Structures are given as C-alpha cells and as structure tokens.
Amino acid sequence: MIKCTGKSVLKGIAVGRIYVYRSGKFAPVKKQIEDVDKEQERLMQAVAQAGEQLESLYKNALETVGEEQAMIFDVHKMMLEDEGYLDEIKALIAQGCNAEFAVQEAGDKYSAMFAAMDDEYMRARSADVLDISGRVIDILSGVGQTSIDSREPVILLAEDLTPSETIQMDKSKIYAFVTVHGSASSHTAILARSMNLPSMVNTDVELLDKYHGKMAVVDGYNGEFIIDPDEDILNDMLANREKWLKETEELKKLIGQENVTRDGRRVNVYCNIGNVEDVDRVLKADGGGIGLFRSEFLYLGKDDYPTEEEQFESYKAVLQKMNGKKVIIRTLDIGADKKADYFKLDPEENPAMGYRAIRICLDRPEVFKTQLRAIYRASAFGTASIMFPMIISVEEIRKIKEIVEEVKKELTSENIAMGEVELGIMIETPAAAVISDELAKEVEFFSIGTNDLTQYTLAIDRQNQKLEKVCDLHHKAVLKLIQMTVENGHRENIWVGICGELASDTSLTKTFVDMGVDELSVSPTYVLGLRKAIREI
Amino acid sequence: MKTFTYTINDALGIHARPAGQLAKLVAGFGSKITMAKEGGADVSAKSIMSLMGLGATKGTNITVKVEGPDEEAAAKAVEDFLKANL
Predict the structure, then answer these.
(1) How far is B40 from chain A (nearest CA, A)?
(2) Can you give the residue ranges of every domain in chain A?
C-alpha cells in the first residue's frame, strides 16, 4: 500500500484501477520528403480533421460545462485555421520537410512568441498553441486520440492534462483524475469540478508503468491517493463512495427549493467567490446571491494597481451574470498573508494585527476611491452592496461614508448612472462585535467573518498547525459574540449574515438559525448541503 | 491606401475572442489589411495569432493600413469593429 498526498479539487471518493496516461506527444523526427504536393494535401486533411474534432469538442463542452469553459475550443479552432500559422507550416513543407515536423516547428515558434509576452493572459496562450499543434501531429502520425482502452472506468494518472485532453476523455470511463502537476485553480481542476469527478492535482506520486492496472482510491475529503489499499481501507472507501454518490444525487433534488425550516423560518444562502469565473459555479449550485465577493484577485499577482476600468469591467460582469440577485463586494482586504509588491508594505512583526484592509484604504484614499468609483459605476448593472473589512470603530465608518459621498458626488457630476448600494461592514474583530450596538446605527447590514473573529477572540493563529488541537472552532466565546452581533443588528433593523467558514458547518446551522441569522454565505459547493440542513430543522 | 490609428480601450487588450472575430471579418475583404503598434512591424489582420502577438493592451495606439480594391469598405468595417469591441 502506498499513500500519496495532493491537493484535492473536489470532496468526493473514487475507487478503481489506475490508468497511467502519457500524452501522445512525442517529438516528431525531421524527414526529407519527395512529393511536396502530397505532403501539403496530407497536412490540409489533418487540419480539417482537427477542426472537426474541435468543433465537436466545443459542442460537447457547451452541453456539459457551459459556454465560458467551451469558448476555449472555439478559440483553438480559430488559431488552428490561422493564416500565418498555416503559411509557416506550408513554407516548411515546400522546402521538403515532413508535415509532422513542420507543424512542430511552427507550433514551437508561435508558442515561444506568446511565452515571451509581458501579459500573463497572453503567456498562457502558449500552451494553447502547443495543444493545437499536438492535435494535428497526433492525427498526422496516427496516434489515437485520448481513448481509454479499458472496459471499466479508471482513475487516470497523468503528469498533467491539457484542457482539451480533460474534456474529450469519455466521462463514462473515468472515476477520477490524479495529476503530478497542476494547481487547484487550473483549467483542468475547474473542469473536473464541473464534471463532478473527485480529482487531485499537485500529487506527490511518480508516473510509473507498474502502477498501471493497480487498485487505488482517491479520497478527496483528505487529499489522499492510495495505491494498492489493504482490504479494510478498500471496503471502507467503497462504502464511503456509495454514500457520497447517494448524497450528491439527493442534493441535486434540492435545486430550486427554498431555504426554509419546517416551522417556516427562511435563511438566505449566498456564495463566497474570488473571481468572475466563480459565478458559473454559483448559478449551477443555485446560490441565492453573492454574500462575499473577494476583490483581492484584482490586486494580487499584478505589477501595478488595477485601473478603475479593469475593476469596473469585473464587477459589472459579475453583476450582469447574477441578473439582479444581490452581490456583496468586499473592498480590498490586502495585508497580513496577502501581499502585492507594488503596495510597498513594510515587513511586520505581527501582520494579522497590522497594516491591512480598511486601515490601508483609509490611509491611501486614492486607492480606495478608485475601487469605490468602479463599484458605484458597476452598480447600474445589477444589485450591488459593499462591505468593509476589519472595522473596529464608529469613526472608521464615518470616514468611509465621507469618502463614499465624495465618490457619489463626482459620479453624479459626470452624469454616470448608479444603482442603490447597500453599505455594510464585516464583523471580524472582537471590538466590532462588542460595540455592534453602536455600529448597527451606522450601516445597513453586518456580515460576520468567523475566521478572523475566531483567531482574534481565541488569540490562536490559524496558520499554526501545532495549535490545531487547542483551537475549538465552536468555542463559546465566539458563539456568544455572534449572538450578540445578531441581536444588536436586529435591534436597529438591519440584517446579519455569516460569511466565514463556520457558515458551512452544518453542525451549527440550527444554532445560527435559532439565533436569527438572516444569511449564510458559503462556497458554491456547500449551498445544497446547507439547504438540506436548513430544511431539516 | 487608407490609414488610421485607434487606441485600444478594452481592459484585456486584443485578447483571443475579438482577435478571432476580427480575423474572420477581415478575411472577407480583398484588400491587404495590416496592423502595427507604434514603432512595431506591420502584421496581417487576417491572422488571429499575429493580432494577439501584437500584445496590444489598453491604451496602445494601433495603426491600421488598408490597401486594395475594397479598401474604403474594409477600412470602415475594421474601424467600426474596433470601436464596438476593443
């Protein structure tokens, strides 16, 4: 028995035989050809065939994973039929080079061009060029497409998979994907999630031929890939898989149902998202709105501050996709463990308690105003709300409101349309919870961030694994602070939600509903499970 | 020959989808149509990869040259497309 760990992309369990998959890509050898016309003809046939494959991939993806993910194949087809790319290949063949090698050369050239570009989006296109070139070479050299010659479904083990490899595999033949490389946010991981395949990326396993055909288990709950499990584990996992499949089926029946308890109490179940693409998952999971739209993705991994226009486009895209449902955007929460170089933040002794979030925004109003302008401009396209993180005092809220008023005045004088925007705050410091009676008079809603609230209340660093044992996530102190916040909010007639990890903890759902919590915001994966828990109260 | 310049306004720049649409549009004309960044080489607007390869981000000035029998109509079509999509 061999236990490997990796990053799980879906909480689920798969049991089956391993299929060691190596992509059909091998470097074609350069050959001198005699009949140039015949070789050109061979190329055009292969290109036409590749075009047909991409078209059917597009249609297939459109049905199974939706337009956003399918678009890549439409783009691949356009790249495949690109004049410059094809001319390059034809010119090499005209010099007497075999088609396979010519495609490889042209593909490498274009891929290098994209790889050298400044823009991250463009750099990522270099993999697309290699993908389409590989497709044409496979056809030319007669390498079968990604077919799996096994009668039973398998756990597919690979170094890495391209999006087109992932999607064109026959789903009925796959239980799970396990890859050595790749990240949880890679295209393949996203596709695996939308196909509901318990999969693992970045797994510490070697791609050995001797694993081919061996029994294995993918435990997506614990991020474990077990090769050759002993009988006890195997039986346990088979039972767990049955349970998981049954639960998944049961949960699907709840799509379109209300989040209401048996005695008629209603709770809004919203979603936490971290970028524009996540909205598809929210809609698929039947989330009622977006309770936390983390805006950090606009700032992290960049060389400079995102422009107002860039931010506006992202907020607008999310608001339009949500089609009138509420979208709560949290303003910049950078600092502590989330840093971007251009912010030029000094190293800190104690970053969790340092210069971060609203503290940076109030200190650098120009950065804050750019974000607020973008949100207010986007508010004309849906139902936008804004919430501010790390609040500890009434004075902060008053300062924020002054800046908000300035922004609104500017936009009005520029004749820019705006929608009604609810303003709220995160309750994630013990200070905010304790004075929530005063804060409630200043804002229109509270959203309790339980992760930070727990860390600050218990004085326990969440990232310190040694403290995991003493960190009681259901600590009375935290629950009391939550209750107090809900009561103080309701006294001023504002709604109170929870957007931290505790919101998805179904062992607490009844407690929260009894406290009167109005909204729970969770990752799209947990929406239906939470709905089930609410309906059982 | 018709020449005009256009400043990219789209946050993502000339990315895959509009580049593909533009290449398709341009393919329908008989004229030779090229685009270039300031100080850069002319590339064929009929090629999606060359268009993406321009690396034209928001704020980049693009010079479009159109030469041929239907240059009048082609230039207008390209300009309209840029204004509407980029």
Answers:
(1) 14
(2) 2-23+146-233, 36-140, 261-535
> Which residues partner with B65 through β-bridges?
B3, B34
Q: How confident is the model at residue B50 (pLDDT cuts 50, 70, 90)?
A: confident
CATH of the domain at B80: 3.30.1340.10
Residue A360 to residue A351: CA distance in whole angstroms: 13
CATH of domain A2-23+146-233: 3.50.30.10
Q: From CA B86, how far away is CA B82, in angstroms rounded?
A: 5
- 8 Å CB contact between A161 and A192: no
ipTM over 0.90: no
| pLDDT, tens digit (0-9, with 9 covering 90-100), for B8-28 | 888 778 888 888 888 888 888
User: With contact defined as beta carbons under 8 Å apart, do B33 and B70 qualify?
Assistant: no
pLDDT value of residue A418: 96
Q: Is the pLDDT of residue A224 over 90?
A: yes
Q: Is the pTM of this model over 0.90?
A: no
Residue in B closest to A71 by C-alpha: B17
Query: How distant is the Cα of B3 from the closest Cα of chain A, in angstroms?
Result: 22
Which residue of the set A97, A187, A271, A361 is catalytic? A187
Residue with tokens 């075009």: A51
Place of tokens 């949880």: A184
Plot region of B68 (φ>0 → left; ψ -120 to 50 → alpha; else → beta): left
Give the tens place of pLDDT for each residue, A482-516: 999 999 999 999 999 999 889 989 999 999 999 99
Residue B66 and residue B30 in contact, taking contact as beta carbons nearer than 8 Å: no
E-only strand ranges, A376-494: 383-388, 422-427, 445-448
**What is the CATH number that goes with domain A261-535?**
3.20.20.60
Tell me if chain B has a CB within 8 Å of the CB of A75.
Answer: yes
Contact criterion met (CB below 8 Å) for B40 and B61: no
